[in-house]
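queue> pop job 88
queue> type: inverse folding (structure -> sequence)
queue> payload:
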């Protein structure tokens, strides 16, 4: 789940910097470190004037942000007491389990600055804006492992005190990580429609992953790290499958499923002109490229090499068979679910290599700079 923990910023205890105080309050519980859960943490202010100047619209917006779709773990009196008086500070954990959230909730409750937590549902517009688009991603966390994010190779933005602060809070392995183009002007994956596709993917994968919904949330987070565009094909497949009525509909699902396998392979092992281990690995040879990725990340003689390679071949053949209406919808649904399971296994082979913070945004970045150059040249020509 995405869990948003809320804090009242109007307190003398903060001594002018509530971010550090809240960060320390959370991590000094030791709950995040002890959980060993792979999470990302974002922080930001929840503007109390959200919704504009009109009082009724503002109140409706606040109700949506704080109390919809449910608010079982919000201290309503504390929270409503901030309306019009103080800013609310949100700390959002991506891929937190409900058990960890409840444990942290209980530990924070005695502090009167704490207002409670709620699940942030990113396919719900108000939550998406406040708990994803308006907060900055600060850390990647897993046990004593911590990476402090900085944006788009801006080396000058690094505050080296941040590393030392996290070491003092119980993280032994601390370093920097480039967050790439996420949450910048190049990020087009910031809409309810995108997160509806992500939610559809999680719903498909949940019954088939060992950790159920928790496993699906983690897989979705890791896929976003690799390339958020992957959800376009898989989301389309799941959506079409839910309304499939005939062979043509099932064939369209299979098309989207095959596109997903191709896009996943493109992200893991891009096409190359030269051969790899004697096999072609160009754009058309995506099955060979998937084998190549597995060979690069599985030790020689490890039985996983053959098992994973054959599973990739099987899924490709299964989805190709669906293109011609040769598979019932139940069989194609199983193939999509198996593709999600295979994806989780492949990404676990080399988690660091599966983080490509610019890959899903390359076209948008290139277009931006081409447009800028074109405007510059046009302005120069007009001034002559």
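queue> result:
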């Amino acid at each position: 789940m995405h869990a948003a923990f809320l804090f009242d910023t109007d307190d003398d205890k903060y001594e002018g910097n509530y971010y550090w105080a809240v960060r320390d309050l959370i991590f000094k519980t030791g709950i995040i470190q002890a959980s060993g859960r792979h999470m990302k943490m974002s922080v930001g202010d929840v503007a109390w004037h959200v919704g504009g100047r009109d009082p009724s619209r503002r109140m409706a917006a606040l109700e949506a942000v704080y109390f919809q779709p449910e608010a079982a773990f919000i201290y309503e009196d504390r929270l409503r007491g901030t309306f019009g008086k103080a800013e609310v500070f949100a700390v959002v954990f991506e891929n937190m389990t409900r058990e960890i959230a409840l444990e942290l909730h209980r530990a924070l409750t005695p502090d009167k600055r704490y207002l409670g937590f709620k699940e942030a549902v990113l396919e719900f517009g108000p939550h998406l804006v406040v708990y994803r688009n308006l907060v900055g991603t600060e850390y990647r966390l897993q046990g004593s492992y911590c990476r402090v994010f900085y944006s788009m190779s801006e080396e000058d933005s690094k505050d080296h005190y941040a590393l030392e602060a996290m070491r003092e809070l119980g993280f032994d392995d601390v370093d920097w990580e480039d967050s790439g183009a996420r949450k910048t002007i190049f990020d087009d994956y910031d809409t309810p429609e995108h997160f509806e596709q992500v939610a559809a993917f999680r719903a498909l994968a949940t019954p088939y992953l060992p950790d159920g919904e928790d496993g699906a949330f983690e897989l979705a987070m890791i896929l976003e790290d690799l390339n958020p565009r992957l959800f376009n094909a898989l989301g389309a497949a799941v959506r079409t499958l839910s309304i499939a009525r005939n062979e043509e509909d099932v064939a369209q699902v299979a098309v989207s499923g095959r596109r997903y396998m191709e896009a996943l392979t493109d992200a893991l092992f891009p096409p190359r002109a030269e051969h790899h281990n004697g096999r072609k690995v160009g754009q058309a040879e995506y099955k060979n490229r998937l084998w190549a990725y597995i060979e690069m990340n599985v030790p020689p003689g490890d039985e996983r090499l053959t098992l994973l390679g054959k599973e990739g071949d099987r899924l490709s053949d299964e989805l190709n068979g669906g293109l011609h209406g040769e598979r019932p919808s139940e069989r194609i649904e199983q193939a999509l679910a198996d593709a999600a399971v295979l994806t989780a296994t492949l990404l676990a082979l080399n988690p660091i290599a599966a983080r490509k913070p610019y890959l899903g945004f390359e076209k948008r970045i290139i277009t931006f700079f081409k447009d800028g150059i074109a405007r510059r040249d046009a302005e120069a020509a007009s001034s002559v």
